[in-house]
Write a structure and sequence with these properties.
Elements: H1 13-23, H2 25-33, H3 37-49, H4 53-67, H5 77-84, H6 89-95, H7 100-108, H8 110-119, H9 133-149, E1 165-170, E2 174-179, E3 184-188, E4 197-199, E5 206-212, E6 215-220, E7 225-229, E8 234-239, E9 246-252, E10 255-257, E11 260-262, E12 267-272, E13 277-281, E14 295-297, E15 304-308, E16 315-321, E17 324-329, E18 334-338, E19 343-348, E20 355-361, E21 366-371, E22 376-380, E23 386-390, E24 397-402, E25 407-411, E26 416-419, E27 426-430, E28 440-445, E29 449-454, E30 456-462, E31 468-476, E32 478-484, E33 489-494
């Protein structure tokens, strides 16, 4: 092994001074640490100003990793999730672009996206395996924004010509409508140019219909209730018994209440102008044998369950949840019934004219009724007492709608009113400069919007502020029916 030594005393004077300065660097570094931050910055600035480009590049490559330290990455995973749980959607989207680690953390945290979906009132259904929660939220957010801004594509279906559409229901595959022409039309939701099919059999106008799965039930002026197999386009049952127009109906599906199903099996409940309400068990049309003629329920009917008698005038509206049924009648009263026993529990009096609409609120154990006397009543369905009388409309309140946070009433006075269902306080009156020019003929709402129709057109309102957003349809003779889901709004109009 060899050792080498260098005699620095033989170097020129200038180089010796440089070497001596280098040897003093540890001492200089200690003295530098004692300087104030302002003096340190000034000293470094003067040094950097006199440095070469290559030296500056070296300094930059040394400093940047220190300044770019990822504080999130250094935290335990539980604390990382705690940090992002406090961020709003805009901040989350910005943070997800910082690095791959941040994006993976944010997009993979299901709890954070569930929180945001719930906060903004979006569906909580899990996305497909190919869609991240971020993309799922983005799709829901875009859909909500399109509703508010009026961004939509309009398609048209040929309807019931000059007849009035009295009832309508739809889903992703089909639109089913009933009208005063006695026909039930079925359209392909996704193909307006496709063939329209008709269910023929009623001998008078169809005033009510509802379907669940493949089973459709309809009621008519001809006094019958018909059950249809939608897929096969055939009538499987004809229930007779009413002696006047079947004005309203509901399929009551079992729900879990206090640990048991109520009712024990699906029911059909119908209200008629003959003052009565009839209850049938819902047939399973998929199990019925293919007969050339439908079963005609006369005399002893195995599906018939109850005849509810107590009203003294036409039954105009019904609403049911579990074994509780509420009915409104032209005899000015509202009745509460038990569908398990067929007994009337309460007969509520207070209205001074015909009751046109009822809704049931199982969460608060209340029901609401609207009347020709221009009022809305809120009733306790357990005790039968009146909790609130809602004044404000000036004429017939013919329509009511209810969601967990909002009760909406519509009247022939051209206005809609939004009420707090807990207090009965009127939050908004949907009217004014952009309001309707005629009686409200139809509406539907959720906890974001109200869509209402009258002679002339269809309007959309912000339910939280009462502000008119835009007109969906204008310059038409009539709007008969409107309903919507998350993606589509279906409206029956007369041009």
């Amino acid at each position: 092994m060899k050792y080498m030594a260098q005699d620095f005393s033989t170097l020129p004077d200038k180089q010796q001074q440089i070497v001596q300065t280098i040897q003093q660097l540890p001492l200089l570094a200690k003295e530098f640490e004692k300087l104030s931050p302002q003096t340190q910055a000034h000293t470094l600035f003067r040094l950097l100003k006199r440095s070469s480009t290559s030296t500056l590049q070296f300094v930059n490559s040394s400093i940047m990793p220190i300044l770019k330290r990822d504080f999130i990455a250094s935290l335990p995973h539980e604390l990382k999730l705690q940090v992002i749980s406090h961020l709003d959607i805009k901040t989350l989207c910005t943070a997800s672009r910082v690095s791959k680690k941040w994006r993976t953390l944010i997009e993979g945290d299901k709890n954070t996206w569930h929180r945001l979906l719930r906060k903004d009132g979006f569906e909580l259904s899990p996305p497909s395996n190919k869609m991240s929660f971020k993309e799922y939220y983005k799709r829901q957010y875009t859909l909500k924004s399109n509703w508010k801004k009026g961004k939509f594509k309009r398609i048209e279906f040929e309807g019931h010509k000059d007849y009035i559409v009295t009832c309508l229901q739809f889903d992703e595959e089909k639109i089913v409508s009933g009208a005063t022409d006695s026909m039930i039309n079925i359209y392909n939701t996704n193909d307006p140019a496709g063939p329209m099919e008709q269910l023929q059999g009623h001998l008078g106008g169809v005033w009510a219909l509802q379907y669940v799965g493949n089973t459709l039930v309809s009621g008519s002026i001809d006094r019958t209730v018909r059950v249809w197999n939608i897929e096969k386009r055939i009538c499987t049952h004809i229930f007779k018994g009413h002696t006047s127009t079947v004005r309203c109906l509901q399929i009551v599906e079992p729900v879990m209440i206090n640990g048991r199903l109520e009712p024990s099996q699906p029911l059909i409940v119908t209200g008629s102008r003959d003052f009565s309400i009839r209850v049938w068990n819902l047939p399973n049309v998929d199990e019925e044998s293919q007969e050339t003629e439908p079963y005609v329920g006369e005399g002893s009917n195995p599906w018939f369950k109850f005849l509810l008698v107590g009203h003294t005038n036409s039954v105009r509206s019904i609403a049911a949840h579990g074994n509780t049924l509420v009915s409104g009648s032209y005899d000015n009263t509202v009745a509460v019934w038990n569908l398990e026993t067929g007994r009337m529990l309460h007969r509520m009096e207070g209205h001074t004219s015909n009751v046109y609409a009822v809704v049931i609120d199982p969460i608060r154990q209340q029901c609401m009724s609207g009347s020709m006397d221009s009022t809305v009543y809120v009733w306790d369905i357990i005790t039968g007492e009146c909790l609130h009388k809602l004044d404000g409309h000036s004429i017939l309140v013919g329509l009511l709608g209810l969601t967990p946070n909002h009760l909406v009433s519509a009247a022939a006075d051209k206005t809609l009113r939004v009420w707090d269902p807990d207090t009965g306080v009127c939050e908004h009156v949907l009217a004014g400069k952009h309001g309707h020019d005629g009686a409200i003929t139809c509406f539907k709402h959720d906890d974001e919007k109200v869509i209402s129709g009258s002679e002339g057109g269809l309007k959309m309102w912000d339910i939280k502020t009462g502000r008119h957003l835009y007109d969906l349809v204008t310059d038409v003779k009539g709007v008969w029916w409107v309903t919507f889901d998350k993606r589509r709004c279906i409206v029956a109009i007369r041009e």
